[in-house]
Design brief:
Blueprint lengths: L1 H17 L15 H6 L1 H4 L4 E13 L2 E7 L4 E7 H4 L1 H10 L5 E10 L5 E12 L15 H6 L1 H7 L1 H23 L3 E2 L5 E2 L11 E4 L4 E5 L4 H10 L3 E9 L11 E10 L3 H19 L5 E4 L2 E4 L6 E3 H9 L9 H10 L10 H11 L9 E4 L11 E2 L2 E5 L1 E6 L2 E8 L4 H16 L10 H8 L5 E7 L1 H7 L16
Parallel strand pairs: 3-5, 6-10, 14-15
Antiparallel strand pairs: 1-2, 1-4, 2-3, 4-5, 7-9, 8-9, 10-11, 11-20, 12-13, 15-18, 16-17, 18-19, 19-20
Helix pairs in contact: 7-8, 8-10, 12-13, 14-15
């Protein structure tokens, strides 16, 4: 059946050429968008205008026909008539015109008896002949995997999907405008790195032919941006793609966009104030002022004051282990086994603390909450808390049981940083592939002096959270398994 349809379409393509018309002309002569024609139809009622779009519907009734075409902005009805067009153009229309084709139509705007604004077509051209059938809106693709794999069909058939990525653009515009207004400098740092750093994640490795060496694809923006603080910039940010060679679920993907900002001479409390303002601004824009969003079975209220939660105290209350005391890996493994929490055999103490917290405490945090007081063992890039050397000056934004942002007072002591990297390397040697590597160049940069600073990072996970979608759905072309 499909092969017959494809053959019929190719025959129509050949007919267009045989009649002396180009089915894929080099340019269009569109005079306005469909939306502009709809909004200003009285102004253009007696003027010739040229509209374009993909054919969405077709009703032929002898010597006349009604169709709808849609561009990126609106759908509009067209009226084709044999008497108006003439035998040649109408025959071309009747014999080659199909749903899915992209066409250009010239004519005058009028209103039908039913009140629908319509273009009376005086001339038309094929701009792109469709050679594959497109499912109608009522019989479209139902397989979500196939829609993600062929996102162009999803966008073509579903206006909600198109609107989703308009909102995503608004999301990043809001972030950018918020920071630029506060005199942050937007920069671009390398995707290929000598050492992957700034996060606990397994990196991708690629080969550089000209330099005859391997590079890592960045897992974070952090260490490059902090080098810029050493260089003398005080406020910097980047919105860029990062790559993490990990599993796929509602919150995780191999490649996605991330934003990180760093502000010299700031601190944890000032930074938290900035983060709250930034996120509330984003929510206000995307919810059109309601300040409420749906996530799974919960309504999240972003307007209220966000409470603080102490990491260690919450861990102690829920798990029953005090992280301020000396604890052993065996003790944590026994607790994980008791709670039926899975972990890899070579798991480190730091990694297991993090896993248990995510599976127990974090799942219970539904409304927006600022988490602070993290153990130093799970925070290799954050400055120590001067009041408790086992903790760091770190914050996380949690809502709906999901981490939506991470920030801290940046560690700028090069000797302490080197020691932390060495501890991470011991974890890697013991089998923790996500532990961070020693970055000697970064330690050397810190040795020249980096001012005290606050840094914060968040990804498009926040956008997917606000849209109540998986992150894979909100990436326009997500990585997918081959069929």
């Amino acid at each position: 059946m499909l092969e017959e349809i494809k053959k019929a379409k190719k025959n129509k393509l050949e007919l267009i050429k045989k009649l002396g018309f180009e089915p894929y002309p080099e340019k269009s002569f569109r005079s306005m968008t469909n939306l502009e024609a709809l909004e200003n139809y009285k102004k253009y009622a007696q003027k010739k205008i040229i509209l374009v779009g993909r054919v969405r519907s077709l009703r032929i009734m002898g010597g006349s026909a009604f169709t709808h075409i849609e561009d990126a902005f609106a759908k509009i009805q067209l009226f084709f008539n044999k008497r108006i067009l003439g035998e040649k153009l109408y025959s071309l229309f009747r014999d080659t015109f199909e749903i899915g084709d992209i066409i250009e139509a010239e004519g005058k705007i009028f209103k039908t008896k039913s009140g629908e604004i319509t273009l009376e077509v005086h001339d038309w051209r094929m701009l792109a002949k469709s050679l594959l059938p497109i499912s109608s809106e009522y019989y479209g693709l139902k397989d979500k995997e196939e829609l993600l794999r062929k996102r162009y069909l999803d966008l073509m058939l579903n206006s909600q999907t198109r609107q989703l990525f308009v909102k995503k653009n608004l999301f990043w515009q809001t972030v950018r405008q918020f920071l630029i207004k506060r005199r942050f400098l937007e920069v671009q740092t390398p995707i290929l790195e000598n050492i992957p750093g700034g996060a606990d994640a397994r990196p991708f490795i690629t080969y550089h032919n000209a330099l005859n060496r391997d590079y890592y694809m960045r897992i974070s923006l952090e260490l490059s941006l902090k080098r810029l603080l050493v260089g003398g910039y005080e406020k910097v940010f980047e919105i860029g793609r990062v790559f993490r060679n990990e599993g796929i679920d509602r919150e995780h993907l191999q490649e996605y966009d991330m934003m990180e900002f760093y502000e010299a001479y700031s601190d944890l409390e000032k930074g938290i104030t900035t983060v709250v303002k930034l996120v509330k601004k984003i929510v206000f824009v995307l919810t059109e002022g309601s300040m409420k969003s749906r996530y799974e079975n919960h309504w999240i209220d972003w307007k209220k004051n966000w409470p603080r939660m102490d990491y260690n105290q919450a861990f102690k209350d829920v798990v029953g282990i005090d992280l301020d005391e000396e604890i052993e890996l065996k003790q944590l493994k026994n607790m994980a086994d008791k709670l039926a929490i899975e972990y890899e055999e070579g798991v480190s103490l730091a990694r297991l603390i993090d896993i248990i917290f995510k599976k127990t405490v974090r799942t219970k945090i539904i409304q927006p909450t600022i988490l602070t007081g993290h153990p130093i063992i799970i925070s290799p890039l954050a400055k120590k808390d001067p009041l408790n050397k086992k903790r760091v000056l770190r914050m996380q934004l949690i809502a709906g049981g999901v981490e939506l942002g991470n920030g801290f007072s940046e560690l700028n002591d090069p000797l302490d940083q080197k020691k932390r990297f060495e501890e991470q390397m011991k974890m890697r040697a013991a089998g923790d592939e996500e532990a961070q590597m020693m970055d000697k160049d970064f330690v050397e940069a810190l040795s020249y002096g980096m001012p005290p600073a606050f840094g914060f990072g968040m990804s498009e996970r926040l956008f997917s959270f606000l849209m109540n979608r998986s992150i894979r759905e909100t990436v326009i072309f997500p990585p997918m398994k081959l069929k």
